[in-house]
Amino acid sequence: MAGKQTPRLKSPILLWFTVALLALSLIFFLISFHSPSQFPDPKNSITKLNYLPETSFVTSLDHFLLTHKPNPLPQETKLSVNELDDLIWKSENHRLYEDPYYPITMPIRVYVYEMPSKFTYDLLWLFRKTYRQTSNLTSNGSPVHRLIEQHSIDYWLWADLIAPESQRLLKSVVRVHRQEEADLFYIPFFTTISFFLLEKQQCKALYREVLKWVTDQPAWKRSEGRDHILPVHHPWSFKSVRKFMKNAIWLLPDMDSTGNWYKPGQVFLEKDLILPYVPNVDLCDAKCLSESELKRTTILFFRGRLKRNAGGKIRAKLGMELSGAEGVVIEEGSAGDGGKAAAQNGMRKSLFCLSPAGDTPSSARLFDAVVSGCIPVIVSDELELPFEGILDYRKIALFVSSSDAVQPGWLLNYLKSISRAQIREMQQNLAKYSKHFIYSSPAQPLGPEDLVWRMMAGKLVNIKLHARRSQRVVKESRRICTCDCKPSNLTTTSNPL
Fold first, then answer.
1. Rounded distance, CA 217 to CA 261, Å?
2. For residue range 399-428, what is the model confidence (pLDDT) as tens digits?
3. GO CC terms on record (predicted)?
4. Start-end of H helices in 99-217
5. Which fold has domain 286-437?
C-alpha cells in the first residue's frame, strides 16, 4: 500500500512569495533590534548624541558666532497698535476657550525682536575681538572682559531662544514668530558690553537709538512696555535712558535698595526678576565635594576687595574683625586669571565662604561659593536672591545680620557651633542646587535659563493685568501713587476712604 504523500504547494509563485516575506520580516527585525529609533524623542535627542553642554562663555560665543548670522531685517509691514491689539485678543481668546487649563499648561511664548546687528551681533563680535586685551580694567581693578562674562545673562538667554528647536531642551518657553501669539517680548540688546567697550558718548548715542527703536514698536506702544523683557544685569549699564523704559521687566542682579544705582519706582520684585551672576570658578560637583571633604580645613574664607562703597562698607569692618583669626583666610584680590585660581583654590579648602555686600547688596562671590561647595555666609541685610520663589536658600546658606557679624568674636563662635551633620547636609544640598546657577549651551532643564521662564510664568497673569489696565484707564481717572510721585504733585483733597 502506497504511503500517504505530503501535500505540496500548488504554485511556485506562492512559494517564492512566502520565502520573500519571511526574509523581509527577518531583515526588519534585525534593523529594528540593532538601530536606534528613526524618530528620536526631541526632548532627549541632544543627550543621545552625547552633546555635552558648554558652560564657558568665550567657547560658547565662538561657536555661536560661527554658526549664527544676522537675519535680514523683516520688511516694514508694521501693524498699527489697534490692529496688533485685535490680533492678540483673538489669539488669547482662542487659547482661553480651546484649552480649559490655559495658561497653566502652556509654556511661555516669547517673541524675540529682530534688531539691527549693531545692537546685537556687532557687540558680541566687539567683545570677542578685544577679549585678549586684559589690561582694560575698571576703576576698582577688575578686568572688564571678566566683568562682562559675569553679567552675560543676556547672551545665554538670547542664544537659547534663537537656537533651532531641534537643539533646545527647555519646555518652559517657546519662541514664536508672530507678535500676536506672544505672551512676552524679548529685547536682545547687550547693555553691559556696550557700556564697558564703547566710548562714553558713543555708548549714550547707541542707548538713545535702542530706546527709539524699541519704543517705536507697536507692541511696546500697546502695553507701554509692560510685557517686554530688558536685560540690564550690570547696575551701571543703560543708566542714561532706562527711566524711559521703567515699565519693562528688567533682568537684574539685585534690587539695590541703597538708591545708588536705581531710582525710586524703577525696580521692584513684582515687576522685575533677579538673575544669578555667571560663576567665575569651575563647578565642584558631588564627586569633587567628596574628594575635597578632608581638605576643607579652613573655617571661613574670603577673597576680594575689602574697600567698597555704600552698603559694602561692612566688608572693611568684617576684615578688621576677622583678620588674623585662627582658621580664617581673608585675602585682598580682584577677578583676573590669578584671582580666579586663588579664589577657586581657597573656596575648595573651606567649609564656609563669607559673602558680604559690595557696592550693591549682591555679589558674584555668592554664586562662586555655591558651585564650589563652600557654604555661603551671607552678610547683606538688603539682599534679594534669584529664583527665591522656587529655591529655599536656607538649605544651602547661612544668613547673618550686619549688626551681629561685626560683634567681636560673634561670627566665628556661631560658625563653630554648626554641627558636622548640618554642614554635611548643606554641602549635599549645594551639590544639588549648583545646577540652578550654571549657564550653558544648550540650556539645561532646571538651569538658570529654565528657572527664568518658570518665574516668568508666575508673573504672567499680573503682567497682563497691568498691561490691559493701562489700556483702558482714562486720562482723567485717579491713578495710584507710586514711589516716584513727588509730594508737590499730590492733591490736598481729603480721601473719603
1. 27
2. 999 899 989 999 999 999 999 999 999 999
3. Golgi membrane
4. 121-129, 144-150, 153-161, 191-197, 200-215
5. Rossmann fold (3.40.50)
